[in-house]
Structures are given as C-alpha cells and as structure tokens.
Amino acid sequence: MVKMESTEEQDRKLVLEFCHLLEKSKQLFNGLRDLPQYGHRQWQAYFGRTFDVYTKLWKFQQQHRLVLDSKYGLKRWQIGEIASKIGQLYYHYYLRTSETNYLNEAYQFYAAIRGRAYYSRAAKEDRPDLMVKKLRYYARFIVVCLLLKKMKLVRELVTELEKQIQEYTNTYEPEDHMEWSLVLEEIKGFIKAEAAVAVLHADSNPIILSHSGSGSRLSPLTTPPCERSPHMTLSLQEILIVGSACEQAKFSELTMDMFRMLQTLEREPTESATNPLSMSHGMHGHDASPAASRIPPYGVPGSKGYLENGRHYRDNPHKYLLYKPSISQLLVFLASGFKELPLGGALLLYMSADGCFSTTKHPEDYGYELGGLATSVKRDSVDGGGLSCRGKSYKENHCLYPGDLYPFTRRPMFIIIDSDNSFVFQHIPRYFGQPLVILMSPQDVPPAFQADVQHHGSLFTLFLHSPLTALCYICNVGDVPIHHWERCQTYVDRFITEASRLVTRCRIDEIEQGIGFIDSSYVQFFGDDFLRTLILRFVFCDVVLRLHRGFRGRHMRPRCEPQLPANELLEHPSLSHIIFQLASALDVRGHFSEGPECD
Q1: What DSSP line would sit under 276-313, residue for residue?
Q2: Angstrom distance (rounded) from CA 418 to CA 242
C-alpha cells in the first residue's frame, strides 16, 4: 500500500513538473516578441534560456509519456503544439542569425508534426482556436519549405491547407474565414510568381535545382573563382534587405524580391542526418539545442564559423529583413547594422521599392531634390501634425533619399537599389574615403514585361539571383529540359569566370595611383564571395541587356557607381562572345543584336 502511494506521489510530481515546464516554456516563448528586433547581444541569452526549457520539456514528455497520458490526459495535438513551438524557435533563430542550418532544424520539426499526424484530431476537439493553430502551423511550414526550395512539398501543403481552411469555415463559420482565404491566395500567387522558368526533368515534370547555379544559395560549386590580392580586405558582415514594392507578390512579409535576395546572400545549409523527434535521442540530444551556455556570444567564432586569413567569419552575414518599414524603422535598423560592423566588415543595403519622384525643376541638392524610394504606406507621427507653411515646398517624409545614406558611408558600404527611380542614388559622394559601391537597376523595362515584373518580382533582382533564369525570361523561354539547362549553365559559369579574370587583371599599383581601369572599391569588395557574386552577376545583366534587341535606351540598362569600365569589361569582346554562344544554345539568337557568329 505504501509502495502504491509512493508511485502515485511520484506520478503527481511528474505531472506537476510537466505543468511547470509547460508554463515556463509558454512564458519564455511569449516573451520573445518583446525582445528588440535589432542589435545582437540583447536577445541571445533569452533565446538560449527558451531553447533550454523547450529541450527539457520535449525530453520530459518523451520519457514520461505513459504517465502523462494517464494522469495528465496529454493529447497528441498538445505534443504537436510543443513541436510547433520548437520549430518556430529554430525558424526565428535562423532569421536572427542568418544561419541556414537552423532552417533545416525547423523543417525537421514541422515535417515530424505532419508525418506523425499530431494535429489529425484537432477538428474533433470542437475548438476553433485549435483549428487556427493548425492553420498557422501549415502557413509556417510552407514558408520554411519555400526557403528550402522544397516546392513539391509546398504544393502538397497548399492543397492540404486549402482543405483545412474549407473544413474550418464549414464547421465554425468564423469571422476570419476571409483572412485565411486571402492567405491561401497569397501563397498560390507567390508560388506562381516564383516559377519564372521551369526546369524540366526527363519526364517533363518541373524540378527545383539546388546546386547548379539556378538561383540557389552559394555553395562551393557556385562560388565565382577569384585571383586574390592583398587589397581584397573586406568581408560582408551586415545586410539590410528591404522590400517596399506595393504591387509585388509576397507571403509572410517576404516580397518576391526579398525572397530571392535573401537566398542569394546565404550559403547552402548542410543537411541534418538525424531525426530531432526521435524517441530515443530527443532533440538531437540535449547538447544540440542552441542554449545560452553552448552558443558563443554573437560574432565570436563558434562551430559554425570558419577561419580565413587568420580571422573568423560566420558562414552567412547577419541579415535584417524589413517589409514595408516606416522611414524611422529603416534608419534605426540601418544604424544598428552600422554599429555592429566589426573591423574589416562591410554593410550591404538592398532595397526594392517604388520610386518617390521629385517635382523640383532645377535641383541643386542631389541628396534630397531628385526624389528617392517610397517607404511604408504607414505614416510615422510627425511633430506639428504635418502642417506646411505657405510658400515653402517640403520633401516627402516617407521616402528614403540618397542624402539619408550619407552618414552611413563612414564605413564600407555596398548598396543595391531596385526601383524605377534608382538612378538618383548614383550621386552619393564618398565624403569619408571609405569603399562604396552602388548597383542600380534599370528604371524601365519593355512594355511586354512591365505587368509581370510589377507583380512577379524585379528583373534586375532576378539577374542577381539567377542569371540564366533571367536571360531565359527575357527571351520568352518558359521551360528548359534539365540536360539543356545544365549545358547552358556552363556558359554562364564561363562568363562569370572570364569576367572575374578581367576584373582582377588590373595591377594593384595602378589602382593605388588612380590610373587603373577599375575603382579600388570593387577590388576591396571582390574578396568576399557574396559581393563578388553580385558584382559579376551585375556585369552579366549589363552585357545581356546591352546586347538584347528589346532593351533599347540607357534607362533600360543598369548603372553602377563607381562606373565599371566599358572597353576593359562591360563591352569586352570575350564576354559578348559567350552571351552569343549561350543565346545560340537556347535557340534565341534572334533576340540579340548582330555580332560574331558563334561556334
């Protein structure tokens, strides 16, 4: 009898311990939304504590499942909810650290929820809030799969989500059914826009390429070659990706341009070989969770850092993703990235936005009188209630002007502007003598592409993300067999290799004396894999659009500042020759201007 009471007491203590861990985990998880979105060290320890508690909670429910089933009444959807929270933790940790391996961790948890059907009986609980949790789980899982390019699974999940939304609507007639219908349409529109060119397998089914330069993340196979020099001193450390284009396809606060650019600025994640929901191993074992005691302070090299030239770097630069930010938010995040830059680090600002045009007839101040980029439609509160004085012309408050960026050029800065008013940023001065490169999109595209580009994502960003896809798109090539795609990709690789050779052949002593054909800023940035990739893909874009018959006029070609040399690079015969060869291989030679016949 005493032994039985002891067992019951033990069971009671186990249930109490589980309830304590569950409540503690919820408190910590809810506290995540109160953490500052910018800055690094402020949130690291809190995330570590949250991971620690969820690790303990997950292992605890695994080890004591029978007791919790019988004494607590633990349901499968409750296990699914814990797993979903852990998946969210990993996803948000990826967003804050830019380490793509955490995307794989999030995927493992979300996939296990689906594979083990943790939410399968949610509809039978007669709880609309539980159904909403299930729908949110699907939406989050779709985002992770999109970022990992698991498009076949994305389509399956969208079909399941549509069915779940229908069931939710029919059962509860909820007030938010229109919102979920809009979410579904948003996802479908995003998937359609993402597939600019279909690469077909032998059975004519579209496939997603992840290691062949098709717009994937950077990998050893896709990193452009480079003849290094001692002057290639800078590494990309901080990135601000801003999406403010009004009509562009988006999902989960990621516009298509943001979606493409963030992948362009990441390395391929390594596949996880273990199952994080294994009954025997728990969550990769306790030590695998990124808890505070096991993660080094931000910026200090850890297991995911690597050593180059005696200095440590993270696998991926740190990124901020801002969807339609207010001007104050944009400047705060920009200042945070500026503040966090280590010695030898560079800051990249990428902005995809609609133009904010000036009405000044005779501009004198190029920093503010040529217009800029429209930021959020949300309005910051302005002292004075927005009153204007008679006879005075004020600037648009909700606009990023070139002059707003002047203070940040105190550190090495790489700027990419994708807008119909991009060229106004070419006048940013180098007051502080720091390396500065500005890549600007064409301000216009031929009428045949305007509607598609406005909704499906910018052509310029597509060139920076996947050069071959962009070339196919402007030549109306809708699908390419896989073997043909890979053959064409070899021409792109040859182009990138040749362009890299042309950039680096300028002698360093000539650059130092100011008589070299290329500005020293390009050389200093060229040692970084990501920045080198962007520069060389910009060259590809410029050469292709210059030769394409449909893109006539300087406003339909990109610009850069400092200017890249024409004779020695952009109009070099060897680069044009490769483009003509590529066009012939795709059977679109007629889209390009006359040139030497290809072999």
Answers
A1: TTBTTTBTT-GGGS--TTTSPPTTS--TTEEEETTEEE
A2: 10
- pLDDT of 5 above 90: no
Helices (H), 436-528: 447-456, 459-465, 467-474, 482-504, 508-512, 520-526
CA distance 98 to 318: 5
pTM of the model: 0.88
Cα–Cα–Cα angle for 498, 499, 501, rounded to 5 degrees: 65
CA distance 36 to 233: 31
Distance from the Cα of residue 235 to its chain's centroid:
18
CA–chain centroid gap for 144, Å, is: 12
Mean pLDDT of the chain: 84
What is the total residue count of the chain? 599
d(Cα 69, Cα 360) in Å, to the nearest integer? 72
- Number of Cβ within 10 Å of residue 222's Cβ equals 20
| Paired residues of 218 in beta bridges | 267
CB atoms under 10 Å from CB of 410, counted, come to: 13
CA distance linking residue 569 with residue 519, whole number of Å = 13
Contact 375, 324 (CB under 8 A): yes
Quote the CA–CA distance of 320 and 336 in Å, as a whole number.
Answer: 10
